[in-house]
Amino acid sequence: MASTYKKLRLSAIVLSIMVGTVAVAGLAMRHSAHQALLEDSRLSEQRLNLYGNNLTTLIERYRALPAVLALDPDLIDALGAPIASERQLALNLKLEKINGAAQSSTLELLDRDGLAVAASNWRTEYSYVGHNYAFRPYFQQTLTQGSGRFYAVGVTSGIPGYFLSSAVVDEHGRFLGAIVVKLEFPQLERQWRQDRDILLVSDARGVIFLASDPRWRYRLLRPLDGGARAALASTRQYDRQPLAPLGLQPLQKLAANSQLARIDAAEYLWESMPLPAEGWTLHLLRPWQDDPARQRNAALGAASAWLCLVFGVLYGYQRLRLARVRRQHQRELEYLVDARTRELRTAQQGLVHAARLAALGQMAATLAHELNQPLTTQRMQLASLRLLLDQGRFDEARAALGPFEHMVQRMNALTQHLKTFARKSPQGVREHLDLAHVVEQAVQLLAGRLKQEHVTCTLALARPAPVSGDPIRLEQVLINLLRNALDAMAASTVRQLRVTLVGDAGYWRLQVCDSGGGIAEQHLARLFDPFFTTKPAGEGLGLGLAISAQIAQEHGGRLEADNQGAGACFTLTLPIAEEAP
Ligand code: ADP
User: Fold this and answer.
1) Does any domain span residue 146?
2) What is the domain extent for residue 113?
3) What residue intervals traverse the membrane (predicted)?
């Protein structure tokens, strides 16, 4: 269950990292494309400004021409009255000459009804002379406002151009006619064609009338409504051109005059610039294609940065988690050690108590045995003493009191031990003691058994052997060791007990060695374990050595066992006490 959850969580993390990487890479690509667009758009705008300036300068140069010609007295005069044919020829020649000098396309003179009375192209088959242009807006503008301007396809020549006109008036300011200059831009378009970019000029209605690529000419940026179509028809501005829509599809607006647009499956960065004086708009279209290498680099860069970030965060998180787990383990461990220590102490105290009770029981049995024998003897001696006294044999009676006294003394010594043992012994009792004395007392306590079991006991004790400790507990250790030795030798024919006490490097080494056959190799390691015993049930509790070792430790020493010669040797090591207080 938990592992499924973990797997799920891992998959979720991996998935979100992957999704994040893809998203970041995508965003970076988009951002980089947008930046590139903006960059290109800035460049286009600069170029567009340049083209715009050129175009306005060109138009500006010719704007003055009709205004100046309108002041020509010759022309004013000619329009004042009907024109004779010689006069017309002279006018035609004059206009032809000026047109050549000014390098304009055509010059024409219209009378007050819009009829062309003279034109620079009078020699050509498209001669304007004799045609009426009153329907053209520039004529209407000139009539009402004194000057006019209009871009249109020539109805006579079929060649498009920009018509600039000025009113010709008499000395009273009366309208006599108009002088019109026509500009054509084929050279400009040719010049534009050199450029990789596409240049267009559209009028106020969105009709493209100038284009570096002829395929774009007379196309519509936006649809025309009925009114506009009617107006175009009446002025014959684009004459018979079909005016098909361009099919412009805006993709992304970059700025007020800048956008990304699609036309016929190709994308263009489209920059526009209004030419307010003419009511036109100049457009610069740059074929747009994002650089795949740059996009890839942007995506790779962003993805690597993102992955670095993600792995950094994961690493930090993992470290934090590890530290937290470690802290928790530490706390748990400390708690566990605490609990175990408490348990151990309780168990040890319980063991000490149990062992003491067991020892007490054994001691009671020993005591009963020890006391019983002298008491029986004493009863018999008392009877014979009474007899001696009755017979008046006082000297013999006194002599008989000797061993009696000796026996009482022995019994006194025994009960003395019992008193010491029964005395309450709180932990941590520290008295200045002679270890040799403690040994002797323990041996004396078992004297009965030693004698009964025919054990040869040798003591070689350094004395005094000062130690600081609890006399009862230390005696308990010795009694344990001695009793174990006696038990071990119960089946031996040779029964030798040897107790030695020597001082060595700040420690007393007390050895209790027997000839009881020693300890089996496999038992050596477990001797000091509580409840380890090889004795039959009811005889051994297996606590003696465990408690003895514990007591040795409490006194800053230790208890060890090994085999030496014919039996086992137990060594109690205790620190030598500094000096008597
Ligand atoms: P108990 O005497 O109740 O068995 P102890 O802890 O005093 O408990 O002793 C544990 C065991 O160590 C004994 O059962 C015995 O096998 C072994 N042992 C102790 N002293 C001797 C010894 N002097 N010689 C051989 N074996 C011994």
Assistant:
1) yes
2) 65-184
3) 12-29
Q: Which of 374, 394, 414 is the last residue of a domain?
A: 394
Q: Give, for ligand 1, the residue of 362, 527, 547, 570 to mutate: max count of ligand atoms closer than 8 Å to Cβ.
A: 527
Q: What phi and psi, each to the nearest 5 degrees, are found at residue 161?
A: -170, 175
Same domain, 103 and 173: yes
Are 482 and 545 a contacting pair, CB within 8 Å? no
- Sole residue written with tokens 């044999």: 393
Q: Look at the chain and report how many structural domains it folds into.
A: 3
> b/e map of 530-560 (b: 16 or more CB within 10 Å)?
bebbeeeeeebbbbbbbbbbbbbebbebebe
pLDDT 10s digits, 176-189: 999 999 998 888 88
Q: How far apart are CA 473 and CA 429, in angstroms?
A: 9
Ligand 1 neighbours (beta carbon < 6 A): 480, 484-485, 488, 514, 516, 519, 527, 532-535, 540-546, 568
Instruction: For residue 6, tell me if it sits in a domain.
Output: no
Nearest CA to ligand 1 atom 18: 484
Q: Are residues 436 and 569 in the same domain?
A: yes
Which residues of the chain fall short of a pLDDT of 50? 421, 423-424
Contact 177, 143 (CB under 8 A): no
Structure confidence at residue 86 (pLDDT): 85
Structure tokens at 32: 């980089």
Q: What's residue 537's pLDDT?
A: 62
Residues 465 and 551 in one domain: yes
Distance CA 339, CA 10 (A): 38
DSSP secondary structure of 171-202: TT--EEEEEEEEE--HHHHHHHHTSSSEEEEE
Same-domain check for residues 448 and 528: yes
Q: What is the pLDDT of residues 106-134, one digit of tens each?
A: 999 999 999 999 999 999 988 889 999 99
Smallest CA-to-CA distance from 486 within 453, 510, 517 is with 453
Give the total residue count for the chain: 581
Per-residue tokens: 181: 């200059």
